[in-house]
Amino acid sequence: TTSKSDYIWFNGEMVEWANAKVHVMSHALHYGSSVFEGIRCYDTHKGPAVFRHREHMQRLHDSAKIYRMPIAYSADELMASTRATLVKNNLTSAYIRPLVFIGDVGMGVNPKEGYKTDVIIAAFPWGAYLGEDALEQGINAMVSSWNRAAPNTIPTAAKAGGNYLSSLLVGNEARRLGFQEGIALDVNGYVSEGAGENIFLVKNGILFTPTLTSAALPGITRDAILTLAKDIGIEIREQTLSRESLYLADEVFMTGTAAEITPVRSIDGIQIGIGRRGAVTTKIQQAFFGLFNGQTEDKYGWLDLVKP
Ligand code: PMP
């Protein structure tokens, strides 16, 4: 799969991919001052549709609000621009990357009162983030030596560019040591999340996931899975989880827009359950991917058709 397309929506205009450039003195480049989203468009039985489009654009606005960053476009306007970007690029399935950043506003950490942000929306083809066969075979993960940010330091509810320095440390350590992904603990030593995914475990048929107070991003896939699991009669518990509860779980999987629902077959070299995708994970995957082929009813209106 390629990770390019023809046009990027840039402050209200369609700009050719190669010409969508910023200045090297851009604030975000120096200080990490950007907020962004990762969204998927699926080629569904009803036609191309953006999954939980409004929730993603709302989270983008929420991330900006935490940092008091202005956005000149409402969630509705951003959604319309995303649909236009997909159409312009002839994409039926895509990964979508909206980004709001403080651009070339002059040096200094504090931009002048009344500054404006720059906004882009890129959309391009992107397959399974952790590999196609990972969705079935699972991945080998490790608990990182790096913790997630402490409360009241870097806010983990914001999907901000700077936060991804943590993901870079966690994900890079794992890959360097021969694992496919890293799992971070919070500052209290409880399970938080993967470098770019939320995490779930299954024990005795009950589905567990860390509370968001364990420094995890409020994942939209996480929320979808909690909703779908409840609908299919799986008991769910959001609670603090110890590192060792991962080792003793029957099943572990990671969730995210990019990673979708990826089973974890081992952690720190310890086999989890049967060492491949388990029964509950399979059921949840079917419910999730069923949304895109019609086998699961879209009863919450999660599909935003690109061409209604
Ligand atoms: N945690 C982190 C750190 C992430 O980057 C992501 C991907 N956005 C997630 C969790 C999963 O969030 P979502 O399901 O909304 O993509």
TrEMBL record:
A GO BP annotation: L-leucine biosynthetic process
Catalytic activity as recorded in UniProt: L-isoleucine + 2-oxoglutarate = (S)-3-methyl-2-oxopentanoate + L-glutamate; L-leucine + 2-oxoglutarate = 4-methyl-2-oxopentanoate + L-glutamate; L-valine + 2-oxoglutarate = 3-methyl-2-oxobutanoate + L-glutamate
InterPro entries for this protein: Aminotrans_IV (IPR001544), Aminotrans_IV_CS (IPR018300), Aminotransferase-like (IPR036038), B_amino_transI (IPR005785), BCAT-like_C (IPR043132), BCAT-like_N (IPR043131), BCAT_family (IPR033939), Class-IV_PLP-Dep_Aminotrnsfr (IPR050571)
Recorded GO CC terms: cytosol
Enzyme class: transferase
Co-factor requirement: pyridoxal 5'-phosphate
Pfam family, one: Aminotran_4
The protein's role, per its UniProt record: Acts on leucine, isoleucine and valine.
Protein name: Branched-chain-amino-acid aminotransferase
Record organism: Zophobihabitans entericus
Gene symbol of the encoding locus: ilvE
